[in-house]
Amino acid sequence: MENVLLQGFQQGNLEDQYFAQIQTINSARLSDPEFVLSPAQEETLLGIANSSSLEAGYAQTMLGILTGRVFMPKLPALMEERSNNSQTLQLSKVGVLLVSPNPANDVINIQLPKAIDRSANRILELRD
């Protein structure tokens, strides 16, 4: 029944193709108690697992179940976005305290909002 549904599944883009490939392998696994992942299936899952696809987590989970392989989470590279000066200037005008870089190692920059009264005594407490 599952294979019939997969055969009719529209694969309009790469995400759909990845989904169908993973589902085909999972369907075979669930229907055969003695299922063994073939080298070609493992290669397919590895390719998807190492991609930036939305299906990467699904493929990683399948590989974890079938081979015990563990994948480290991939974090997006946001440094360029966070250090965008025009964005920083716009945010400081609306009253947002900005701390950069985030995450930081030894040195941080703190930008106070323009609307803050700089003549008043204030305490800024930073915590890890």
Brief sketch in words of this structure:
47% of the residues lie in helices and 5% in strands.
Secondary structure layout plus pairing:
Blueprint: H1 2-7, H2 14-31, H3 39-49, H4 56-67, H5 79-82, H6 85-93, E1 98-100, E2 109-111
Description:
The protein is mainly alpha-helical and 128 residues long. 47% of the residues lie in helices and 5% in strands. The chain has helices spanning 2-7, 14-31, 39-49, 56-67, 79-82, 85-93; strands at 98-100, 109-111. It has a two-stranded antiparallel sheet. α2 (14-31) packs across α3 (39-49) and α3 (39-49) packs across α4 (56-67). The model is unreliable at 80-93 (pLDDT under 50).
Cα separation of the termini:
54 Å
Low-confidence stretches: 80-93
How does the helix and strand content classify structurally?
mainly alpha
Order of helices and strands: HHHHHHEE
Helical run tally: 6
Helical fraction equals: 40-55%
Overall form: elongated
